[in-house]
Amino acid sequence: MVGWTSWTFPSSNVPIIWKPLRWRAEWVRFYGLLFGKAAEADSLFARVEADYLRWAAKVADMEDKPTVFADLKSGATWYVPGGRSTVGRTFADAGADYVFSDLKNSGSSPLSFETVYEKAKDADIWLIKYNMPEDKTYRDLKNDYAPYAGFRAFRERRVYGCNTGRVPYYEETPFHPEWLLEDLIKIFHPDVAKAEGGRYFRKLAD
């Protein structure tokens, strides 16, 4: 497969095939290679890549970029995705200004609520993921932790939630990042993606 690197594991004759992932969706190409379906897998990934780039191109030259932050605190710690993480890069591709883009790691950084609040308190949009039988509301969010209500995005009702207990976010987005990108562009630039509703993220109800 073009672009893949192979090597032999020390002390064995087993070839190992790997590639640093541009997107997690490229795993489909790896599975296709393993199961003798390389051509079909390459074709599928090509469609995913083309759709992703088509959506990204729609907002690539946007000058008016909303500021955004993500997630919720866990206990005393807020695990913030780095600017080079999948989350951070997807926000950039969706035409948003991620308030923690200066964190150069590709994983998450454990920060205090106070640190996150100081940097994100005036952000335009807040995206959260959670798992509940029913969709979370602003009342629920405030009941979870009263200081959440101090964020501008909370006060101005621009919090979007993805209930992973009710939508297949984790099952779909590794193989279809273009669907997630479209979802985010609907939030960040509704004039570009005018379709109603979101596949994963929806505005919280009061």
Detailed description of the structure:
It is a single chain. Helices cover 35% and strands 18% of the residues. It has eight helices and ten strands.
List the helices and strands and how they pair.
Layout: E1 5-8, E2 15-18, H1 27-34, H2 38-59, E3 67-70, E4 73-74, E5 77-81, H3 86-93, E6 97-98, E7 108-111, H4 113-120, E8 125-130, H5 138-144, H6 152-155, E9 159-163, H7 169-172, H8 177-188, E10 202-203
Parallel strand pairs: 3-6, 3-8, 8-9
Antiparallel strand pairs: 1-2, 4-5, 5-7, 9-10
Helix pairs in contact: 1-2, 2-8
Largest sheet: 5 strands, mixed
Strand content: 15-25%
Order of helices and strands: EEHHEEEHEEHEHHEHHE
- Rg over CA atoms: 19 Å
**Count of separate DSSP helical elements:** 8
